[in-house]
Amino acid sequence: MSNTALGNHILVEFMNCDPHVMNDVAAIERDMVGAARKAEATVINSTFHHFSPYGVSGVVVIQESHLAIHTWPEYGYAAVDVFTCGDMNAWIAFDHLKECFGAKSYSAIEMKRGSVNLLTRNDFDITTAREKAAEWRNPDFYTRNVWFTDKDEDQALSLRFTGDVFFDVQSPFQRVRILESTKYGKMLALDDMVMTTIKDEFHYHEMIAHPSLFTLQNAKNVLVIGGGDGGTVREVLRHSNIEKVTMVEIDGEVIKACKEHLPQIAAAFNDPRLELIVDDGIAFVKNAPDAVYDLLIVDGSDPVGPAEGLFSVDFYQNCYRTLKADGILVAQGESPKFNEKAFAELNQTLQGIFGSNNAPVGLFFVPTYPTGMWSFQYGLKGAADPRKINNTETIKAFVAEKGLRYYNEDIHFSTFALPNFVKQLI
Ligand code: SPD
Asked: What is the per-residue pLDDT for 416?
């Protein structure tokens, strides 16, 4: 660098970048710190902030000065500046970021900062400066303010998270991430949707399994489609009458992520009664024999991406066929508040196949899903009906023995009590 200036500053416009990257605070922090390291800078600290509804700002402080960024995802744009002193080559950082952000166009200007010809060096006394610094205390405590938002065009649920990302893989089907939320602990996100969190997963997993298993009372053969985090099979396998569970999950990366980072949920993958198949669940059901399963559980994600086919008529006709005469289907039924259309259409499909009185809906609450109100939808092939059970003493004993935290004999019935607006939807 020229010895006539104190620093070198490059101001960069990155344009036509990937908008998802421009809104991903953790990825941007990783890339900015990575750019500094690649340019052989010494990283001192970094702080990054995600704005609502979108946009990221952040700074990486380096021994040689700083790198800073402000993004506008809606324009695929990032304003970056890299300020360096000494021998550091800022253009190495520039090349790295261009690559990471997928910038299709860019421009940059370079300026020398602090022309020594215009400055006068004073006799700055370092000893007095240190004494003064010791007297000063930062009155504020700054924390990261990073939010994960699960949303459609009009509504959203946001969870604050620490910014730590434990797993981030783009599988052939979806982006699989394990993040750390501050309130609910580690969570699994598929694309930009919350699937489950350590602290509220039991709401969903207890309710997907136990109402139907206590209705059937002696189920032996269960098929689970999806459910890659393992929570559903963990609950099913709590029942000692179960002889075999076949679980078919399309995305091996989900299983891998959860085994590594959510072991409390992925707790039953080693149970000898479980056969785990990584394959397309829709094709599996299509090719399954007639009348073999007591219970078929569809633990899919929302009807976008790989789970779209889990909401089709064709799929549920095959589910019906492969259930035994008294068999029960339980499907992740979406929210009557967040996604009324998918909720109502699924119920129409199930009523069409199982009969209008044989497609009850069970509501339950998941704090980390948008609106909090969620459903499981049932298809009753024969007479076994979860609204008409009389084995509540058995449920009570099981709940106490297993330490269940959501499901109990009262919830068993109350889940089927629907508000009027929900009745009107179905
Ligand atoms: N919007 C969330 C829909 C729920 C999808 N399934 C969650 C998987 C938990 N095993």
From this structure: 98
Please choose from 150, 236, 250, 301 the residue to mutate so as to test ligand 1's pocket, defined by most ligand atoms within 8 A of CB.
301
Is residue 368 in contact with ligand 1, taking CB distance under 6 Å? Answer: no
pTM greater than the 0.85 cutoff: no
User: Phi and psi of 272, rounded to 5°?
Assistant: -65, -15
Residue corresponding to tokens 């399994």? 209
299 is catalytic: yes
Q: Report which of 299, 296, 323, 331 is spatially closest to residue 226, judged by C-alpha positions.
A: 299
Cα 92 to Cα 38: distance, rounded to the nearest angstrom: 7
Rounded to the nearest 5 percent, the helix, strand and coil shares of the chain are: 35, 35, 35
- What pLDDT shows up at residue 139? 54
Task: Please tell me if the CB atom of residue 201 comes closer than 6 angstroms to any atom of ligand 1.
Answer: no
pLDDT in tens, 48-91: 888 878 899 999 999 999 999 999 999 999 999 999 998 899 99
Distance of CA 301 from the midpoint of ligand 1 (Å):
5
Cα(272) to centroid(ligand 1), Å: 25
Q: Residue 195: CB within 6 Å of ligand 1?
A: yes
| Residue 101: band (very low, low, confident or very high) from pLDDT cuts 50, 70, 90 | very high
Buried b or exposed e, range 318-355, using 16+ CB within 10 angstroms: bbbbbbbeebbbbbbbbbbbbbeebbbebbebbbebbe
Which of 271, 299, 302, 314 is catalytic? The answer is: 299
Residue 90 is predicted with a pLDDT of 96
What single DSSP character describes residue 33? Answer: H
Contact 46, 29 (CB under 8 A): yes
